[in-house]
Amino acid sequence: MKKIMVTGALGQIGSELTGKLRGLYGTDQVLATDIRVPESGPALDGPFEQLDVTDGKRMHELAKSFGADTIIHMAALLSATAEKNPLFAWNLNMGGLVNALETARELDLQFFTPSSIGAFGPSTPKKNTPQDTIQRPTTMYGVNKVSGELLCDYYFEKFGVDTRGVRFPGLISYVTPPGGGTTDYAVDIYYKAIEEGKYASFIAEGTYMDMMYMPDALQAIVDLMEADPSKLTHRNAFNVTAMSVEPSDFEKAIRTHIPDFQLNYDVDPVRQAIAESWPDSIDPSAAIAEWGFQAKYDLDKMTADMLEKLREKLGK
Ligand code: AKB
């Protein structure tokens, strides 16, 4: 990875990934693109172009004129938003992905895109979900993610595009809030703990999902992209996770720093149903074996860092 184009660079992952890649490979080596145009902020510290990922011609032109050797395709709608407007989600998530894969094929670029725990469904084994298993998701987001995993495999097998990817769990970060995800409660809870000392979770007590702190997610992308291709059996859609947690686990962890913190529940049936269709915990052993994946943050370490950084950010 030397000249990298990032789509969705203002999103939850893209905004931090762009900064990390610029730190590693040089500011001018990373072209940030997004459908939105920021007035200020880190995306503008280096090259930035507006890009609607459904416009394949412009995507190709931007990658070509930048001289990219890698495309990291992050632009996508998350699970809860996709469920509200499934056809739009299909067009954006799949249309954007096909355009990015075609750009990679035409210009011979290395390629990364994330899949998700949302690629699993109710008939998938729920605990320690294997790398290779039943994938019959019941959400549009999940349908997009499984289709995307297969499409990335296809572009590798058929055209030799160096496609790589992981199945991300819920990602937790103090920098850019997520939007429209089922796991977003795990970010909201930290903001509300500091701002109000209490939080009403839209996910019910006892609902386990995998989560990961953003620094580990960013490192996973870099490590997978730099991995020796001869060691990769799976290439796309590696299970990665740092913890399997439910809302009251966050409550306990936050209370060690904010003893009066109160957690209540105001369950959203739509997001609860999505969460229940996903695994409780996934098995990352293929990622560990094939490219040395490891997460540095567990729940307690992440909570301490989140609260410290959020207090600085919110001035509390
Ligand atoms: C979502 O909740 O939609 C995402 C995901 C797990 O892919 N955070």
Automatic annotation (TrEMBL):
Query: Which stretches make up the NAD-dependent epimerase/dehydratase domain?
Result: 4-229
- Cross-referenced PANTHER family, in alphabetical order? L-THREONINE 3-DEHYDROGENASE (PTHR42687), L-THREONINE 3-DEHYDROGENASE, MITOCHONDRIAL (PTHR42687:SF1)
Q: Which GO terms describe its biological process?
A: L-threonine catabolic process
Q: What protein am I looking at? A: L-threonine 3-dehydrogenase
State the InterPro entries in the record. Epimerase_deHydtase, NAD(P)-bd_dom_sf, NAD(P)_epim/dehydratase
Domain of life the protein comes from: Bacteria
Signal sequence segment = none
Molecular function as annotated in GO? L-threonine 3-dehydrogenase activity
Regarding protein family, the annotation reads: Belongs to the NAD(P)-dependent epimerase/dehydratase family.
